[in-house]
Amino acid sequence: MIYLDNAATTLIKPVSVGQELLRAMQRCASPGRGGHRAAMRAAETVYRCRETASALFHVPEPERVVFTMNATHALNLAICSLASPGTRVLISGYEHNAVTRPLHRLGAELLIAESPLFDPESCLQAFKEKIGEAELVVCTMVSNVFGFILPIRDIAALCREKRVPLIVDASQAAGALDVDFAALGAAFIAMPGHKGLFGPQGTGLLLCGALGEPLISGGSGSDSLLQEMPDYLPDRLEAGTHNVPGIAGLNAGMQYVQERGVPAIFETERKLLCRAAEQLSDFAGVELFTGPAGTQSGVLSLRIAGVDADEAALRLSEQGVCLRSGLHCAPLAHKSAGTLDTGTLRMSFSPFVRGEEVDVCCRKIRELTR
């Protein structure tokens, strides 16, 4: 099997991820639910992961690292903390449904900073033109459909200047780009554990510059006499028993990212993307969505003339090649790029993808055009 759907989930993980997950399943109980050895091992495991995330993302206090089920959970926590019915929320034209659906459900008023694909300057200008109307900004760092790297540092600086809180969706950036919590000064940064951080599914992180409002209430292992959630992090946002095995695996995944280095991971994925683009760029019937150096991460979308994207993905799957097709849960991004009617076929890379696998995939795509 050739797996090129890493923007959805990194299937191939460092060996240590599974080892640590299994070890935690066998040795750890529930953190904060007792002073016995198994509970204390769980507490230590969870705190070590907070410390790793704190170092990797430049969070000044590990307590500001909150564990979630995934990026969608983290984004819902952040959005429901800062938005309410009628809140004017400015978003990019490349947001995922994990942003737009919670805002729609809340009844927020959406303002969209529309801009062409792979044009960071136009993107920033669109935010400048509309931020005066906004009470909150939510912006992705990288489009999950096209790999377009948005100018998040400039957008964050604009938000600080205008004193508008910012929520950052780092789902496609964490592990591949520098996500600097301290430099961005965002109210919240959300990310999954199971993509570029190589953790198990069912894990995610919310980096908190603000206190936040709980989505659910329950046991926190602290202040049990209170009938409200505690007023301090991380307990305020972490009701119920932690996914300790998942957190242990996530810690191992983040340690791999630290050891290999985020710039090295980005460069590896970028080389794989360029390798694929070189083989497909001059092939009649294949339309590639690529940007200049510095504007695109390791995600490559394409369309094949005369072949439906879903049909292409199915035929490739039958030959052992795993790509994703359709709208990728991001219809707004497709509207911005002009691909809403067709969707795209998407390749997405990881450091565990071999160049030879990319070659095979490209050859099979070329065969589909015949």
Structure description:
This protein is α/β, with parallel strands linked by helices and 370 residues long. The protein has two domains: 2-10 and 261-368, Aspartate Aminotransferase, domain 1 (Alpha-Beta Complex), CATH 3.90.1150.10; 15-260, Aspartate Aminotransferase, domain 2 (3-Layer(aba) Sandwich), CATH 3.40.640. 40% of the residues lie in helices and 15% in strands. It is built from twelve helices and 13 strands. The protein has helices at residues 15-27, 37-56, 71-82, 97-106, 120-130, 152-162, 181-184, 244-260, 262-280, 309-318, 331-337, 355-368; strands at 2-3, 65-68, 88-92, 109-113, 136-140, 166-169, 188-192, 204-208, 286-289, 299-304, 321-322, 324-326, 344-348. The strands form three sheets. It has a seven-stranded mixed β-sheet, with helices on both faces. Helix 3 packs parallel to helix 4 and helix 9 runs parallel beside helix 12 (355-368). 51% of the residues are buried.
